[in-house]
Amino acid sequence: MLLFSATLAGSILSTPAVAQPVSSSLLNQKMQAACSFLKSLYNPSLGLVRSTPSSNIYYIASENLLVERAISSCEPAISQAINQSISSCCDSGYDRKHEALLGVRIHVPINNSAVYTVANSTSGRLFRGIPPFTAGGQYAVLWEVDNATGTLPDCTYADVTVYTALELRLEVNTTGSQREMECLTTMFDGRGLVDEAYKAGSASEHGIYQTYKLALYIYALQKISGTYFYGEENLFRLQGPDGGFHTGYDQIGTYAGTQENAETTSIALIAVSNLSATNPFPFPLFSIPSWVVYFFAAWAVIGVGIVVIVLVLERKKRKQSF
């Protein structure tokens, strides 16, 4: 029994998933760099962040919805300004999918998305009356909402699977959320999530791991399974010198010619911030899955029971001898 338990413990603690946690100082450094990148995308005239450093497109959701939460600790003033800009046109800015990351209920199954034009300065539709010369050039404000006809299939796309799992968790549907996690475990090949987009997606997706899906997987493991993948070290390899996260990577871990953008960076920051907030232990021993704790606790109870039985029998034996 002891030999088996020791072997199992050694195999668990030696796995790459828990053996190399990132130090808190490095974690904070990477988080601050990501925050600085998102701040660099902020246009104070519009009160919104652009999609990429060279873009003039501003998405209410998912970009600004997620950035508002991602920088709420490191740049609270900008976060509040984004919140006000979203509220001025689009209520909460929810898109019926990404707010699951914020602890807000969504409808499942998730619908296909539709894009709505909130503002387009080239056609005279201004955002909060702000002219192009004040905003730094022509711009467009869009809002992508998952309310179109048709639904996205379950356990087919990694991101949809995570959002579904988070919703089922909020419903206290443990069986359902764990089923979604099993789908994610099947998709994960040790480098990234191999879903339908990876296998048969567009040219920008086929054979390319999506960084935000890795971040979502890390986040879901923490929130739903209570385990710590420590995949943030792999995630940080996709962070550029300016703090932004590249949208994709190939099997050898290179950026695969992908850009940095607001959505990927904000999801990565939310995932890593949650890790920092919920895992205060510096050693992997304290981050092993809960089933392992129960396993060894059960063996401890059995061991104590055996000792008690042996002592009782020995005491009876002594009495009989006397």
Structure description:
It is a single chain. With 322 residues, the protein is mostly helical. The chain has one domain (2-288). It contains 13 helices and seven strands. It has helices spanning 2-13, 16-19, 24-40, 60-70, 76-90, 132-135, 158-170, 174-187, 196-200, 211-225, 232-236, 262-278, 290-321, and strands at residues 42-43, 48-49, 57-59, 114-120, 140-145, 209-210, 248-249. The protein has a three-stranded mixed sheet. A hairpin with a 4-residue loop joins strand 1 (42-43) and strand 2 (48-49). Helix 3 runs antiparallel to helix 12 and helix 7 packs parallel to helix 10 (211-225). The radius of gyration is 24 Å and the shape is elongated.
Task: Jot down its keywords.
51% helix, elongated, three-stranded mixed sheet, 7 strands, mainly alpha, 322 residues, disordered N terminus, two-stranded antiparallel sheet, single chain
